[in-house]
Amino acid sequence: MELLGVRVELPANTPILLLQESSGAKRVLPIYIGGPEAAAIAYALEGVESPRPLTHDLLKPIVTELGATLVRVTVTELVEHTFYAELDFQVGDRHHIVSSRPSDAIALAVRTGTPIFAAEKVLDEAGQVAATGDDEGEDEILEEFRDFIEHVNPDDFAS
Fold first, then answer.
1. How confident is the model at residue 154, as a pLDDT?
2. Is there a contact between 9 and 41 (Cβ–Cβ < 8 Å)?
3. Model pTM?
4. Topology of 2-157 in CATH?
5. Contact 42, 54 (CB under 8 A)
C-alpha cells in the first residue's frame, strides 16, 4: 500500500488516512482516525520535529534499542466499522506480532520506512476504486493535507 496522506473530511472535520494499492485496481482505503494520530502522521510525512518527542517518535529508538526491526504493518480486519492492524517485529530469527490501531501502526511505519499492507478482505470490503485520469482529485487531497499541516499545533493535543 502507498500512503497518500491525511486529510480532513468535511463537514465533520474528521481526519481521514488514505492508503492506496500500489498495483492492481489501485483501490483507495480510507480510514477515519483521531486528530493526534493524524498530526503524528502528518508531522512524519513533512519531516517536522516537535520540541519534545511524540509517542511514535519515542517508540522508534525503543524498538531499535531492544534489537527489534519493524518489518511490516498490515491493516488486517474491519469489524463493525473499526479497522485493526498488526505490527510485525523481527528479533533475531523470530517474528512477534503486536495488535495495533492502524493510525498508530502507520505513524510508526512512516518514521521507520516500513512497508504498509492491507488484507485483501479489508480492501474488498472497504476499498474504493480511485478515479482514473484525474490529477485534480490528488491535487485537492494534497492541498487539504497541506492546510491541515499548516494549522495543526502539537500543543493542540497536549493534556
1. 58
2. no
3. 0.79
4. Bifunctional nuclease domain (3.10.690)
5. no
